Amino acid sequence: MKTFLVLMLSVAALFVWQRRGNDAPQPAPAQTAAIESAAAPSPREVWEHDWAKHSIDRTHEVLDQVRQTRDQNEDQR
Questions:
Q1: Which of 39, 42, 43, 59 has the fewest Cβ atoms surrounding its Cβ within 10 A?
Q2: Cα dist. 38→1, 6, 17, 32 in Å?
Q3: Mind listing the pLDDT tens digit for each residue in 49-77?
């Protein structure tokens, strides 16, 4: 029972520690404007929890490009 309690407290402490580590300080508004103007806007933002959907969407885009290229090559023959 003591081992289970120690394990649960360790997991809870690790969870809290990681959650606080993700809360990075935000840059000042002037810095944010400079960063946004320097970076090119992406067609769609990729969120931390949306990486799987983004990778699947990108895979489908590449597959469509390959399909179009093959169709064009067949038409040229």
A1: 43
A2: 56, 49, 33, 10
A3: 777 888 899 999 999 999 999 999 988 87
